[in-house]
Amino acid sequence: MKIEHVTIRQLKMRMKSPFVTSFGTVQTKQFLIVEVFDEEGLVGFGEGVAFEAPWYTEETLQTSWHMLEDFLVPIILKSEIGHPSEVSQLFSSIRRNNMAKAAIETAIWDLYAKQNHISLAKALGGKRDSIEVGVSIGIQPTTEQLYEKIDHAIREGCKRIKVKIKPGFDLDLISSIRKRYPDIPLMADANSCYTLNDIPLLKSLDKYNLLMIEQPLAADDLLQHAKLQKQIQTPICLDESICSYDDAKTAIELGSCRVINIKYARVGGLTEAKKIQNLCEDNNIKVWCGGMLEAGVGRAHAIALATLSNFTLPGDTLGSSHYWEEDIIYPEVVVKNGLIEVPEGVGIGYSINQKVLEKYTVKQKIIMQD
């Protein structure tokens, strides 16, 4: 595979409602779309999901653009690629910047699948025709508004409800949800906002029969998570802590978690995500596919990833209409009875709505071979 040129776009789209976590609030989402073209004119699409501020990881929208334009795209344009799994090795001299790497690596996976006339799910070795989905609900202004969102998710057939918690907005919240919804599959996402000083509070969550508590401690606290997991019954799920296969291996060896949320963008692409899911499968660690408020391209890659065998828990990949008035793909991603049917078309299985793509593009650059 030889890449003839690459287009980087910056898009700006407004979400239907703000998404609030302990980190901050997002409603207008700016993100990148990367298009890789081969010499025959076929194109693969990837999405750069880093936020504008470095509150989830150290990356931002602007650092991703910089890394793509000045380092990653030039490497790709001068390389002959036999298989997308080689891309991560091509980028091995560049530290971190995983979301930038994933933006172009996923595009190359899409192009590879199109060149071989197969779906991305098949190219990855996927085993499912449909995937189960849950919902991630941000912090709401009132409990009643939270209940409304949970009620809507239940009507839509969501297989799992995830709510955001933070200090002062945790125990009473979970207690009230459990009282109102005693049987729903429920988990809490802390986004790293607790410490070991909060062990008594975190232990008190055990009685609410949560599926898991996601990322309770800091991203670099694998040892502390291991200490916490020994003292609570609720399974710990790691998110921000797992940025590579080696991170996952260390976490498993320490006993830092019983579940891992795999976000392909956080770990540098689909190749690394696949390696992590294989490792977890071998070690009886459950995995699920997290979300980054993606538009349709990123969502399509997440759907394909979630077809792998060890993705046994519902992910955060809801339909397009949950987030956007209009998406950049067609048909848009649709959830029926808590399931997304995996598209059978080549590549990501969705077409790009060029009109909508152009409508929301605020900046673009075409980079050619020298």
- Total beta strands: 15
Question: Rg, please?
Answer: 20 Å
Tell me what the CATH architecture of the largest domain is: Alpha-Beta Barrel
What is the ordering of alpha helices and beta strands? EEEHHHHEEHEHEHEHEHEHHEHEEEHE
Overview of the structural elements:
The chain has 370 residues and is an alpha/beta fold. It folds into 2 domains: 3-118 and 351-368, Enolase-like, domain 1, CATH 3.30.390; 122-341, TIM Barrel, CATH 3.20.20.120. The chain is built from 13 helices and 15 strands. It has helices at 61-77, 87-90, 98-115, 120-124, 143-155, 171-180, 199-204, 222-231, 245-254, 264-267, 270-282, 296-305, 354-360; strands at 3-20, 25-38, 43-48, 130-132, 135-137, 161-164, 186-189, 213-214, 236-238, 259-262, 286-289, 329-330, 339-341, 351-352, 361-368. A 7-stranded parallel sheet has the order 5-6-7-8-9-10-11. Helix 1 (61-77) crosses helix 3 and helix 9 (245-254) runs parallel beside helix 11 (270-282). The radius of gyration is 20 Å and the shape is globular. The mean pLDDT is 95.
